[in-house]
Amino acid sequence: MRYSTKEMTFAKGTSFLFAVILLIICSSCGGGGVKGKVKDTMEIVYRMPVTTNDAPWKMMNGIYAVGMRYVILDAVSQERLQAASYIAGNGIPGLVREDEEGGFFSAKAGDMEGERHRDEFVSIFAEAGADASLSLLSGKGQMVGINTFIRRSMRMLDVERLRKNKEPVAGPDGNELGWTLMLMAYSHMLKSSWMNVKGNIISSEDIMQVALERPISWGSYNGLMENYGIAVALREYKKNLLKEEFAKFKAASKRNEDINIVKPTIDSLELQGVWGQAQERVNRVIDTLEQNRNKQGIFTAEWYKGPKTGEPAEEVLYTGLAMDFLTVALPDDELEAGWVRKAFDELAYIIRNNRYQLYEYNDALTKAAHALRAYYDRTTGNEPIRDRDVLIEKENDQSPCCG
Where are the domains of the chain? Predict the structure, then answer.
């Protein structure tokens, strides 16, 4: 499905981010090549105006693109506010809620649209590097820890229900799994099993299997968010598996000093079961994207059908989503391939040449910004905030989820 009118709503106000962020970016603005253009373009994206009059999903999109320091503007006082703090402090009545299972984000906050996809907001907090101590003020006046949002999310998953409806269902109670797989990955739950509210034992592999049963174009933004979640989960699983295999390698090396033992690498890992299937899925999406580039090297809503051209907002949105996927799915050497570099170069070019028109399209700019930042981080060696293992604390409790 194409992006909706609500997903492409005009962002009111004239907010700017912290000057320090712009100074960091602009201190080395300019420069040649794709990397220089990407870095310059990030300043344009970071200037996208969002105020307290805007829907909360726009604020969360900003956090997704920039991180926990993303700033919005108070529509009345013109004061700059940290979006995460504004949301956590119940700045949007009705958004943060709680029940006996824990905290959750509502689909509606007054007359504003809230969370649009299952586990979207809590996953954004996780990926942006939210600390495990983060608490949010609910409408009941209670501070609700971010961990309870994650626990509730896992408890509410129902494999049978997820499989039952073959069509995508949006909303916090929908059946999309891209954000859920991201949440599991960043919450260190890829080898976990737990009991859901119906008393059934399910696992992260069960959820991955459901996602893999769906076509590559299934879900929001024509499947690219679902595929991104699969790729993120696979990457984190492989990183953890490599650590385990390397520990075995070191132990074996000490025991057999005279034997030539091959050091494990990310490419030498043998993936079993659902994880092998996930790698096949990721490879298929990579091949599809490479084959279906248009003459400019970018993508539209029909990325899975063949090369197409579209309006700037559509090209920015879908190219941003596609490149976000590739920054996770590709190894370092392939991320520098000519077709990948060309796509990022063209994405940066379209944004720079349509900056004011694109401010009307929050989803397009923020998804593109996320991809540009991820690409810049990986190709320059910057430490991405998305890799910080700071969200989940080890808790000594007996709850059925989510060890």
Answer: 1-77+292-342+350-385
49-68 as b/e: b if 16+ CB within 10 A: bbbbebbbbbbbbbbbbbbb
Tally of residues, the chain: 403
pLDDT in tens, 129-170: 898 889 999 999 999 999 999 999 999 999 999 999 889 999
Report helix angle 19-26 to 33-46, nearest 10.
Answer: 160
**Interatomic CA distance for residues 161 and 313, integer angstroms:** 34
Q: Which residues contact 271 (CB under 8 A, 6 or more apart)?
A: 238, 241, 278, 279
**CA-CA distance, 317 to 321, in Å (whole number)?**
6
Structure tokens at 337: 């391939």
Of 119, 42, 124, 132, the C-alpha closest to 87 is: 124
From residue 311, give the alpha-carbon distance in Å to each of 110, 274, 351: 33, 38, 12
Between CA 63 and CA 72, with CA 69 as vertex, the angle to 5 degrees is 70
CA distance 70 to 65: 8
d(C-alpha 192, C-alpha 111), whole Å: 38
Q: What is the DSSP letter of 297?
A: S
pLDDT tens for 224-274 read 999 999 999 999 999 999 999 888 888 887 777 555 678 888 888 999 999
Instruction: List, for residues 49-93, the tens digit of each pLDDT value.
Output: 899 999 999 999 999 998 998 999 999 999 999 999 999 999 999
Give the DSSP per-residue string, 97-144. Answer: EEETTEEEE-SEETTEE---BTTHHHHHHHHTT--TT-EEE-TTS-EE
pLDDT of residue 228: 98
